[in-house]
Structure prediction request, 275 residues.
Amino acid sequence: MGVADGWVELGDRVFVRRYAFYDQNIGVILGRGEALVIDTRSSYRQAREILDDLRSLTGDPVTVVVDTHGHFDHAFGNAVFRPASIWGHERCVPFMERTGETRKPKIAAETPELAGELDEVVIDPPDRTFSDVATVEVGGREVELRYLGRGHTDHDIVITASGTAVVFAGDLLENGAVPFYSDGYPLDWPATADALAELVGDGIVVPGHGDPAGRAFATTQADSIAAVADLGRRVHAGEISLDDAVAAHPFPGFPPEDARGPLVRALAQVRVEVS
Ligand SMILES: [Zn+2]
Prediction:
C-alpha cells in the first residue's frame, strides 16, 4: 500500500482519494495509457478537482468513468469527464433523469456551499449500462462491474479490478455514518450487503464515504442492515412500537435516533409488500 500525494494505492494501480466534502472516496484504476475513475462528485468544480489531483498519478486520459449509483454526489460531475464512456447500472439512467434536475433546489437548500455550482450541472447519465455483470477494459486490464441487488438504491453497483482484492462498494456501505436509506430498499438490502461482504472476502472494501475497511466491517454493517429490516417487520406486525425499534439501536456507536429514518423506510417497504 502506498501513498502518492493524497492518493492511497490499495491494490496494483488501484487508488482511492478521500475528499473532505462529504468524506467521500473517489477511486482510480490505471491501465496502460488510460485511467478509469469511480464516481465524479457533486459539481463541475469538484469533478475538475479530481482531474487536477489525477495529474500527480498519471498524465493519461480518463477514458472510462463508472458511477456506483446516480446520487448527485456520485454523478453530478459526469459531464466534465466526457468524451469518456460512463458506465452504470441500467436503472441508474432513469433514476438520474427522474431525480437529477428536480432535486437541485433541495440539494442547494441542504448544502448551501453547493448552491452556486448546481445550475451549470447538466444531468449526464451513463451511456454504457448493464443489468447483472459487465467487464470493462481500461488500458489492457479488466474491471468487473456487478449488481448485487437492491439496497441503498435500486441500481447500486460494485467495482473490482481483476486480480486485485479491492472492492468499491459505493453507498451500499458507509463507514462513519449510518447508511442512507431515503431511496433505499431496506428489505432487500440485507441480502445485497451479505453478497457484498462475501465478495470482499479477505480483501479491502472502499465505502462511498469514510475509511476503507475489511470484511469484518462489511459483515457488521450487513448485520445492522438486517436488523433494520427485522425491526421494520416487527413494528408492522404490531410486536413493538416504532420508538421501541429506534431504541433497539441497530447501528452501534451512533445515536439511536439515527435509526429512525431507516426504520420508517423499512416499515414503508413492508407495507408496500404486504398490500
Ligand atoms: Zn448515495
Remarks:
- The first strand starts at residue 2 and ends at 4.
- The two ends are 51 Å apart (CA to CA).
- The helical segments are 44-54, 72-75, 92-99, 104-110, 189-200, 215-236, 242-248, 260-274.
- Residues 152 and 172 are 5 Å apart (CA to CA).
